[in-house]
C-alpha cells in the first residue's frame, strides 16, 4: 500500500490543471454573521461532471501509459465517480467500463453513457458490484480506478484544497465531508504541501459526517476501519455520498493527522442544504451540506477567523427534493 | 430626462466596486456543443441579494449627498429591486421604505425586513403601488429610486457587462433579458465604453424576452413604448421579472442602438431553466432562462464565436418549482 506524499500534490496539480475547472469561491454576509466568522465556499459543484471527483479521475486516468491505457479503465459507481472516470477516459480517448447497480437513477446512467462509457449493470449489492467488476476486468484487462483507495485519486482530490489555499491564503481551517476519505486525505496532503512551500501556519483540516453514517468517527476512536451499523444500513443517511467505509490509504493519512471528525443529525443536513440553496442560489448535494450543518449547529469552535468548506458536488434529482417530500 | 453616457460607466464602477461581488463566469462543454459556439455565463445570481439589481441600487444610493440621504430612500417592488435598495441603504446607514403588494411572497418581505428596511403594504395593483409610494415620500421626504428609469441605476447595472467584458474580452455578443430595460441599456453603454477604451471591435448586445411579454419587441417595431396586451396580462409569463414595460431612459438608449430583441415561448423558458439547474448546478430565475432559451431554440445566429449571457438572478421559491407543478 503506497501512501501518497504531500510533495506529490504540486506535480499532480500541474498534470491535471488544464483539464479541470478552476472553481470559484463564494461567500455571504448572512452566513458569516450566523457563524460569527468568515466562511468561504469552494464550489466543486461547478466542477466538470458537477463534482470534485473529476479531479481524482483525471489524475488517475490521464497520465496512464499507453500500454495500460489501451485496454481502458473500469470502476463501479452509482454516483459521481462513474461520471468522472467516464469523462476522463473520453478526454484520454480510451474505453471506460462503469459497473452500475440496475436501480441507479436513470439520469446518472445517461450521464455516464453521454461521456461515451460502457455501462454494465449489476444487482444492487456490494458483492454483485465487486464480482461484476472482476468479470469486466477479466474480460477487458481494463485498469481499475478505485473511487478513493487509490493514491492517484487522492492526489487528484488534493488539488481542490490546493487551489482553495491559493485563492484564500488566510484559511485557518478547511472542513470537508468524509465518506471513503479520498477528499479528506487529499486535503490533508494539500495543507501540508502548502505549509511546506508557503511557510505559513498550517491550515487545519476537519471532517464532518452524518451521525447516521458515523463510521469514520468510530474508526478514529477505535483505531481500525469501522463499517455502518445494521441500523445505519437499514435507515441510510440522506447524504448518499457518505455511506461508504473509509479506504485503507485515506485511513492511514487521516490517522497520522489525528483528524477531528464531527457528526451532525439528518435534520440539520436537510436544513443546511436548503439554506445554501436559498442563500447562495446554488444546487448542492446533501453530502456537501454536512460541513455547513456542523457550522450552523456550532459543533466547530468559532475561534478560526477564516474557514473554508469544500462544496463537493451538485448532482441532485430535481424532481425529488428532500423538502418537497410528503410527511 | 438625462440619458447616461458610456463615458460614465467607469466612474460608476469605481464607486460601487468594493461593495459588490465580482461574480464568477461559468461555462459547460455540453452547452457549447448544443449551441455550436462558446457560451459564457456571468453569474449575477451569486451577486449580493441574489441579483444584478444590487449594482444599480448601490450606484443610486451610496453616492447620495448627506442632505438627501438623511431622509432615506424609497421604492416600490415585489422583487429583487426592493431587496437591493434595502441592502444598499443598510450599507449607507440610512432608512429605506419599500412599498410591497400585500400578496408578495413572504420570503421576499422577510428578506427586505432582514436588511433593516421598513415595508409598507399596498393593494396588488400598479395604481395602489404608485399612490402608496407617493404618500410615503410625502411623509418622509425620502429619495425615490426607480427600478430602471433612473440614470444612476442604469449606470450601476452597466457594471455587470463591464466586468464581464474584462473577464472575457473575446466576447462578440452579450445577451440579456429585457423587462424595464435597465440591464439591457446599461449593457449597451458598457459595451460602448469598453470599445472606446480597449479599441476592440464593439461587443454586440441582443435582448431576449418572452413571447408572452413581448412589449419591448413591439416597442422597437412601433417606435414608441408599448404595454402588455390584455391577453398577456391575463396569462402572465412565468418570467415574472420581465412583465414590466420599458422605461423612458432605457428606451432611448435601446432605440439609438437599434437593439435586436428575440422572443421565446413559455415552454422553452421552463426547459432552459431546468437545463441550467441540472447542468450548471445553479439556481436561476425564470427570467434568466429567457436568453438561454433563445440560444437553445437557435433564434440567434451561431456566427458569434464567444457569446456571453448575463444570468440576472436566482431568487426562486424552492417549494414551488415550475417542473413540480401538477399538470
Describe this structure in words.
The structure is a homodimer of 327-residue chains. Chain A is of the alpha/beta class. Chain A has two domains: 6-52 and 150-324, Rossmann fold (3-Layer(aba) Sandwich); 54-144, Rossmann fold. Chain A has helices spanning 9-16, 29-35, 53-61, 66-69, 80-92, 106-114, 126-140, 151-167, 182-198, 215-222, 230-234, 248-256, 266-280, 286-296, and strands at residues 25-26, 38-43, 73-76, 96-101, 118-122, 143-144, 173-177, 204-210, 261-264, 306-311. In chain A, the strands form two sheets. A six-stranded mixed sheet of chain A has the order 1-2-10-7-8-9, sandwiched between helices. A four-stranded parallel sheet of chain A has the order 5-4-3-6, with helices on both faces. In chain A, strand 3, helix 5 (80-92) and strand 4 (96-101) form a beta-alpha-beta unit. The radius of gyration of chain A is 19 Å and the shape is globular.
Q: Which helices and strands, and how do they pair?
A:
Two copies of one chain form a homodimer.
Chain A: H1 9-16, E1 25-26, H2 29-35, E2 38-43, H3 53-61, H4 66-69, E3 73-76, H5 80-92, E4 96-101, H6 106-114, E5 118-122, H7 126-140, E6 143-144, H8 151-167, E7 173-177, H9 182-198, E8 204-210, H10 215-222, H11 230-234, H12 248-256, E9 261-264, H13 266-280, H14 286-296, E10 306-311
Parallel strand pairs in A: 2-10, 3-4, 3-6, 4-5, 7-8, 7-10, 8-9
Antiparallel strand pairs in A: 1-2
Helix pairs in contact in A: 1-8, 3-5, 3-8, 5-6, 8-9, 9-12, 13-14
Amino acid at each position: 500500500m503506497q501512501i501518497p506524499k504531500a510533495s506529490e500534490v504540486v506535480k499532480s496539480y500541474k498534470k491535471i490543471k488544464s483539464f479541470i475547472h478552476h472553481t470559484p469561491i463564494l461567500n455571504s454576509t448572512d452566513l458569516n454573521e450566523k457563524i460569527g466568522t468568515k466562511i468561504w465556499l469552494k464550489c466543486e459543484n461547478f466542477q466538470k461532471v458537477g463534482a470534485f471527483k473529476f479531479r481524482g479521475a483525471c489524475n488517475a486516468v490521464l497520465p496512464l501509459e499507453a500500454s495500460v491505457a489501451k485496454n481502458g479503465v473500469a470502476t463501479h459507481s452509482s454516483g459521481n465517480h462513474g461520471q468522472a472516470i467516464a469523462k476522463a477516459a473520453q478526454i484520454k480517448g480510451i474505453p471506460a467500463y462503469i459497473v452500475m447497480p440496475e436501480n441507479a437513477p436513470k439520469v446518472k446512467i445517461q450521464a455516464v453513457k453521454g461521456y461515451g462509457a460502457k455501462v454494465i449493470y449489476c444487482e444492487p449489492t456490494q458483492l454483485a458490484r465487486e464480482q461484476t467488476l472482476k468479470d469486466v476486468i477479466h474480460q477487458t484487462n481494463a485498469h481499475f480506478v478505485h473511487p478513493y483507495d487509490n493514491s492517484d485519486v487522492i492526489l487528484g482530490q488534493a488539488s481542490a484544497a490546493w487551489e482553495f489555499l491559493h485563492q484564500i491564503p488566510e484559511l485557518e481551517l478547511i472542513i470537508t465531508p468524509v465518506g471513503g476519505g479520498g477528499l479528506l486525505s487529499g486535503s490533508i496532503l494539500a495543507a501540508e504541501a502548502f505549509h511546506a512551500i508557503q511557510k505559513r501556519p498550517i491550515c487545519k483540516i476537519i471532517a464532518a459526517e452524518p451521525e447516521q453514517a458515523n463510521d469514520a468517527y468510530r474508526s478514529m476512536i477505535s483505531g481500525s476501519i469501522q463499517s455502518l451499523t445494521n441500523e445505519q444500513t437499514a435507515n441510510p443517511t440522506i447524504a448518499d455520498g457518505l455511506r461508504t467505509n473509509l479506504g485503507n490509504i485515506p485511513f492511514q493519512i487521516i490517522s497520522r493527522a489525528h483528524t477531528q471528525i464531527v457528526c451532525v443529525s439528518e435534520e440539520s443536513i436537510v436544513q443546511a442544504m436548503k439554506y445554501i440553496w436559498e442563500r447562495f442560489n446554488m444546487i448542492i448535494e446533501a453530502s456537501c451540506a454536512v460541513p455547513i450543518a456542523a457550522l450552523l449547529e456550532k459543533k466547530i469552535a468559532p475561534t478560526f477567523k477564516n474557514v473554508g468548506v469544500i462544496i463537493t458536488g451538485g448532482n441532485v434529482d430535481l424532481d425529488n427534493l428532500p423538502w418537497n417530500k410528503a410527511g
